[in-house]
Amino acid sequence: MSLTLKLITLLLLALSHHAESGSIVKFLPGFEGPLPFELETGYIGVGDKEDLQMFYYFVKSENNPQEDPLLIWLTGGPGCSSLFAILFENGPLALKFELYNGTLPSLVTTTYSWTKMANIVFLDQPVGAGFSYSRTPLLNKVSDTGEVKVIHEFLQKWLSKHPEFYSNPFYVTGDSYSGKIVPPLVQEISRGSYLTNLRYEIKFFSRSVRPDDLKGYILGNPITQIKSEDNSKIPYAHGMALISDELYESLKRICKGNYENVGSRNTECLKHIEMYNKCTDKLNRYHILLPDCDMTSPDCFLYNYFLLDKWANNERVRRALQVTKGSIGEWKRCNYDVIPYNYDIQSTVPYHMNNSISGFRSLIYSGDHDMVVPFIATQAWIRSLNYSIVDDWRPWMVNDQIAGYTRGYANKMTYATIKASFLVST
Fold first, then answer.
1. Residue 77 Cα distances to 283, 336, 426, angstroms
2. What tens digit of pLDDT does each residue of 129-161 get?
């Protein structure tokens, strides 16, 4: 055996020794019978010593896994678990709405899951979100730019363990705060940034996500540039008849369109903002038509979030999901406090522009009753790209009913509103 072949063999053995492997989950507590889809859960170690253990749920397409697109889904926050997406947004299961009596909440299947037509990797990120954890104390703050590199490394390692999906069309998807992560991640992948880790530089042993595999990205209610989105809340409130014409005109004139971080000297502007707050403080900002109530109340639409906490913190559930025992304490839907975070990407508009120039498709959608990321803010930054309109504003339909409105732009971007929809993982 030549020296080169020996070295290759040794590296293959090392790679095999360090490789994490997912586990197939056939049954979940709370669901009656075997799961009617293929679910895999597991960890991928990221970083020089793989101290960051990133937890994922992988659901194979229920249609044609060999040819259907492969998606990675990133929930917002930062710090919200992708389990929320699986059970509340676009996954194959949902929590049954029922009064909690001390027993494990029940799960039911959905008819609207994206996994009907796509393979999806739901990732808990950043570390500290959901079941992802670090083996050692973090030395540096988690950041937007850092997460882009972490997720890119995760993808490369995940694909090296699932080579059967190399040729599938690949899309990066997410909502809410992932609007800050997805566009730069698409750019990172498209530019072919490779890992510095030796095991992933040697082409004999792994392949990166290649630009030819990457087709585009999807974002729902995406945070894009926070200052302009915050300033859009007052125009949104006026358009939705939450404040009077007179108050809105006074706010525009006195505050000059800047409603955030108003200096203490501008007392007249502050007085008018206080009047605006009195009109809107009791609203559910994630869906202005819903009551703003305690989620532990069975009368509240968000009561299922309370049931989710009970389900995800059950030891039987953790064992079924193959969660490493003792790796985290209490599971939280959104873990805002545990991670010091550096918000170092101020705007992702330049990334959208670069990705469009590179020819990637994109779908941007807004729930039109979400006041956290108002649709008018999203429409404003899309207009700033100066794309020509190729499919003018029109309704889109579900069962002969208007479900929202859409517009198509050059550079393969589509924008859509979803009537009365909302996202609550910001």
1. 20, 7, 5
2. 999 999 998 877 899 999 999 999 999 999 999
End-to-end CA distance of the chain: 56
How many residues does this entry show for the chain? 426
Least confident window among 39-53, 96-110, 334-348: 334-348
Can you tell me which residue has the tokens 């586990």? 23
DSSP, res 329 = S
121 pLDDT above the threshold of 70:
yes
Name every residue whose Cβ is closer than 8 Å to that of residue 263 and which is 6 or more positions away in sequence.
none
Per-domain boundaries in the chain: 18-226+301-418, 228-280
Beta-bridge partners for 170: 70, 214
**Residues in CB range of 11: below 8 A, 6 or more apart:** 198, 199, 202, 204, 205
The correct CATH number of 18-226+301-418 out of 3.40.50.1820, 3.40.50.620, 3.90.440.10, 3.40.50.300 is 3.40.50.1820
DSSP E strand boundaries for 356-412: 361-367, 389-398, 401-409
Query: 163: cis peptide before it, omega within 30°?
Result: no
Burial label for 394, CB within 10 Å (0-12, 13-18, 19+), is: exposed
Cα–Cα dist 412/255, whole Å: 37
Q: What angle do CA 304, 310, 311 make, to 5 degrees?
A: 85
The amino acid present at 311, given as its one-letter code, is W
**Whole-number percent of the chain with pLDDT over 90:** 73
CA nearest to 15, candidates 199, 166, 194: 199
**Distance in angstroms (rounded) separating the CA atoms of residues 123 and 36:** 21
Residues near 10 by beta carbon (within 8 Å), at least 6 away in sequence: none
CA distances 151 to 91, 328, 341, 381, Å, are: 20, 20, 16, 25
CA distance 37 to 77: 28
Strand-strand pairing, 142-143 and 107-109: unpaired
